[in-house]
Amino acid sequence: MEPKPDISFENTAIAFAYKSDAQLRKANFIFSLVNHPWVSFLATGFMKFAFKTRLPIEGIIKKTAFGHFCGGESIEESEGVIQLLGKYHVGTILDYSVEGEKSEEGFDDTMEEILQNIEKAHHSEHIPFCVFKTTGLASAELLEKINSKQTLTEEETKAFRRAKERVDRICKKGHAYGVPILIDAEETWIQDPIDKMADEMMARYNEEKAIVFNTYQMYRTDSLDNLYHDFADAVKGNYHVGAKLVRGAYMEKERERAEKHNYPSPIYPDKPATDKAFNDALEFCVAHIDHVSVMCGSHNEVSNALLAERMAEKNLSPKDPHIWFAQLYGMSDNISFNLAKGGYNVVKYVPYGPVRAVMPYLLRRAQENTSVAGQSSRELRLIRSELQRRKRSSRQRQ
Ligand SMILES: Cc1cc2nc3c(=O)[nH]c(=O)nc-3n(C[C@H](O)[C@H](O)[C@H](O)COP(=O)(O)OP(=O)(O)OC[C@H]3O[C@@H](n4cnc5c(N)ncnc54)[C@H](O)[C@@H]3O)c2cc1C
Questions:
Q1: pTM of structure
Q2: Average pLDDT over residues 247-262
Q3: Is the distance from the beta carbon of residue 267 to the nearest atom of ligand 1 less than 6 Å?
Q4: Which residues contact 200 (CB under 8 A, 6 or more apart)?
Q5: Could you tell me the distance, in angstroms and rounded to a whole number, from the CA of residue 217 to the centre of ligand 1?
């Protein structure tokens, strides 16, 4: 029988070793606040109102939620978090989280920021990947038009060419510096041109190893086929597939739009179906690890444990360079830090950017951690359990 990996996600001492008592109490306060649906609703409503009316609440946000979920307002300000995570063998993916950019100038600025990230990663042992969202480099309206196969005006054709050039400059620099690049996945109605660009980039830059990683949203009913198809193309073209697997972040939006426009929802009808597709994709990647590099972008304990098990069954070292585990900074530390302690390759997305620009990201985290059916969020339970453990052990020491 193959050895079972010795991984537990229950060890909160390991999970929160990087947090002082005061930081943990602050985390308890934040997650307790968002845990109550009504308090969460009022707090997020107030935050939205305060930002719209320019009330000066940046300071307090920065000291609370921003401090918990983000690295800082700039690359330089994120250095403390990069070093702290690095101390526990957890890598950082700097995630420039300025959303809603719409002008060509703004797209160029975002590209420059990502190029700086690559520069930073090149000189840092703690930043193994860089990432971008295509809607930071091209207009969502334009991508939607291409996705729905509408004819572009001359101006739009030029704009799309510029967008492709931005994507290519980023991937080219990643390739030159040996820094892998993740391309985030977005909504289905803009995703086809993103996938197409990602495929082109993989064929161009993944000859020796996976430099460009596309993202596969496994809640989509067509994602497994897309993965198989990309794999077949890569084998034929003699390059590597870089696959970041996620379940998908836009389920409600996708379903609403499908209903409104009367087309079948592109999302599986239930969670078990998404879970099965996600786990099948993981198994497929491990089975074809000679040709695929995979990142498990998930807070799901079963999927992360499954990946570790499949690695053990294949006698792959936890440090196999083709396999990565990734979570968001400020969440699922029980998974990240216990895996890192077990010697696995672990990274955290660390969002950064001006407080105001990162607000939509923070509001999504609040929503995600609001109690469902009166149950505390998993994060809150873990934080409270660690606070209790510390109290008990300090009593025992006295
Ligand atoms: C490192 C990292 C990178 C990420 N990058 C991206 C990205 O590029 N693009 C993106 O879209 N998301 C991204 N995400 C978010 C991700 O898609 C998920 O929304 C999030 O991680 C929750 O899924 P889970 O696997 O962690 O956990 P779980 O809690 O096990 O899964 C929740 C997810 O399951 C799916 N789901 C829930 N209910 C149902 C249902 N009734 N029917 C069908 N499916 C259901 C949804 O996708 C939901 O988000 C990323 C997440 C991480 C950690």
A1: 0.95
A2: 96
A3: yes
A4: none
A5: 8
